[in-house]
Design goal:
CASP-like protein (chains A, B); homodimer; elongated; CASPL (chains A, B); mainly alpha; about 160 residues; CASP_dom (chains A, B); two-stranded antiparallel sheet; about 5% strand
């Protein structure tokens, strides 16, 4: 009974994380906007920024991993590997979202000390896409965090009886 | 015998991580440089950027945690908590270093699409400090990654006999 509950919680968290990483990837990849400022035309897209490229790569890797694990999770033989890979994926997701958030923050607020102006007024749709992708990525990162804490709790409890 | 080896490896990794996070905190906090560009005086310091403030906070938390755990690690009763907290600290460190790296990359290379100019030519010493702090933080993050993979491996192996 406890085992069935554990499997259901795990699968729900994995489905949530899979949906979130997939959305984050799609929303970030489709972000594109052209704008004209003082007669200079420029286009904003994710591939202009190495950080956003890393974000898309990380979310895509997590999406692929999430899909594979959904099919494998019933096999006990790979359980240990999955616990370890879950931690690695959580680290990759955390890394990518933190980096993208830092850049997005400069895009929105600018950095007056460094002389970097905010760009979201010029390309509001692009910024909306990025915000959406970041929210989805954040949900995925939280899902993996909960998943990790939960599986560590489940696996470690029998080792350390109170 | 195997247990002694495990304890020694763990303590060495923790000492390395502790030294690295401490250096990262100190080097980042002491980064400060004033420059004059076109008669406008400006000063670069870590507290100008929310991302670098987050970096210092995260490294300081990891330093404090590292110190406490070095004293506690001999008590078996807190082993499970430490395994879980190690994962959390690794996530915090990864997050802070990724964010700081993304901002530092813009500081060094700029972002021509967004019209953000590189600032490292104006404040080279500040950039050197940030680079040093990032390298130290990177060492700490790797130490925690290895520590996590190692303790997951050690604790999970008896649960999943081949």
């Amino acid at each position: 009974m406890a085992k069935t509950k554990r499997i259901i919680i795990t699968i729900l968290l994995r489905l949530l994380a899979f949906g979130a990483t997939l959305s984050a990837t799609v929303v970030m990849v489709t972000s594109h906007e052209s704008a004209k400022v003082m007669n200079i035309k420029f286009s904003a897209k994710f591939s202009n920024s190495p950080t956003f490229k890393f974000y898309v790569t990380a979310e895509a890797i997590a999406t692929g991993y999430g899909l594979i694990v959904l099919f494998l999770s019933s096999r006990r033989s790979v359980d240990r590997l999955i616990v370890i890979l879950d931690v690695v994926i959580a680290l990759i997701l955390t890394s990518s979202i933190s980096a993208a958030l830092a850049v997005a923050q400069i895009g929105k607020k600018g950095d007056s000390h460094a002389g970097w102006l905010p760009v979201c007024n010029q390309v509001p749709k692009f910024c909306d896409h990025v915000t959406g992708a970041l929210i989805a990525g954040f949900v995925a990162a939280i899902a993996y965090l909960v998943l990790n804490l939960y599986s560590l709790h489940v696996f470690l409890t029998p080792l350390f009886p109170v």
